[in-house]
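Researcher: Go.
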Amino acid sequence: MYTVDLNCDLGEGFGNYRMANEAEILSFVTSVNIACGFHAGDPSTMRETVQLALEKGVSIGAHPGLQDLVGFGRRNISLKPQEAYDIVVYQIGALQAFVQSEGGVMQHVKPHGALYNMAAKDERLAMAVAEAVYKTNPELILFGLAGSELIRAGKTAGLRTAEEVFADRTYQNDGSLTSRLQQDALISSDDEAASQVIRMVKEGKVMTRQGTDFALRAETVCIHGDGPHALDFARHIQRELQQAGIEVNSFS
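Model: Structure:
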């Protein structure tokens, strides 16, 4: 039996701006990464998303990002390892307060956007993020790009890690995600996304944009909640995984 976690980035509205269908998406995923106020989210949105996740029985994780609302945390910003450590601790603490106050338990931490991709390649930045998670709560699981520096740093720090793959992104030869600045970065076809995920889970391989296979381990699959068809995407991916004999469960 193959088993995989299905996660989604949610709680990424703020103020009067709200993402659509978040409650419905939670019916099709097993873990949720909740924005912590830097790249998106605000206190009320964080509380509401925590409440929704608990109602749906979905495992909760913090989704700390760079302090860049305008760029949605997807623009690279130069920062020192100590600064990365500080912003991750700060954001985990903010979400943890809401999770605890609602009677829940936090399962994991998954960095967002540019912070995630930078830590995937930069050993010192990855170690700063991992140490921030460990020192906040060594029981937390660190989600990171499969085969990346962030996964290695998490293991070095003594954390349990989850190697993450993406349903809606294309890959490069080195296992990195194709830059969003390129036209072929995103997968919009439900069937193509499902086929990619099933192969990653069952065969441990993904076809890169250069036409070669990259070997990886798929322990959790990401679906982006800010996509235009996120709900349909989540529903389709979950159904196709189950039909392929892959059990969808959270780590909890």
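Model: The chain has one domain: 2-248.
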